[in-house]
Amino acid sequence: MAQAFRIAVLPGDGIGPEVVREAVNVLLAVGRRFDIRFAVTEAVIGGAALEATGIPLPEETLVTCRANDAVLLGAVGGPRWDRLPGDRRPEHGLLRLRRALGVFANLRPVRALDPLDGVSPLRPDTVAGTDLLLVRELTGGLYFGQPRGRQGDEAVDTLRYTRGEIARVVRVAFRFARERRQGITSVDKANVLESSRLWREVVEDEARHFPDVTVTHMLVDVCAMQLVRAPASFDVIVTENMFGDILSDEAGAIVGSLGMLPSASLGEEPPFLYEPVHGSAPDIAGRGIANPAGAILSVAMTLRYSCGLPRAAQAVEAAVVQALREGYRTPDVGGTARTADVGERICGLVEAAPVPTEGGG
Question: Residue 334: left if φ>0, alpha if ψ -120 to 50, beta else—which one?
Fold first, then answer.
């Protein structure tokens, strides 16, 4: 009997529906090639949910997400909702979803791909060999701390972390480092922030349980500089919510475009959340030129972490690289291909992939 998985799909706003459409097509191509059944259920979030229901994260969407094995999301936000109060903006729906699902560890892999050699604004010799994993704490810190709000001419946001919140994401980072090159860079601002001094203390405590992993502490401003000076020097980076948000966007320059970067948000128990790192890009929405690679590679992460299908995940990743090698590139990475053309070619490559004798896993 074929394996079966249920995937909740939240296309969202801007280019979200365009890239998610191609990602779902690739997921279904995986199903055909590896004899796996994927049941896909769509729901609304962000601006699309505001238009349909008046709130950025309807309860029906949460119910749908919790009833599935994994959640694939496109992007949220756009200028038409920028003047709304903070708790009604599309982004608030995404923050609430992350907190509701308990997905506290956000994995953002950044790998230099040979077919994109020369696309990055960095020198090819600087980018060469880059293969890092940024682990971002996702449900704490400045984005969630209380009190927050505005009163008259004063606005307040609170950066708050507990020892437990830090320890659990740091342990995730150590486990991944152990499976990779056994090096962790913990990024903070411990020379200024008390929350960062706690962060550094917890990292040191957890490091005792991973004596085979080398730990380096780095201030966030130094890390930002080193990411563009020597990105290949990093193995695993672990950091708090806002620093991780900013640094991973900077890392998009390494591969040439944010459109290439996927992410997986993991918690103690499923469903987990998968989404490209890029935003809704309203300036190109509807033009058919958005890069679907980040969303498609997020499908590969879904296969690996939620479905336990590493070989199927590798087939998707290999198809993305091969499509790039053949010239299927959207304008953000120096090509002229359209979103649907890239997705269609990757589907074809997945359907032609070798099938392991023991199935997709």
Answer: left
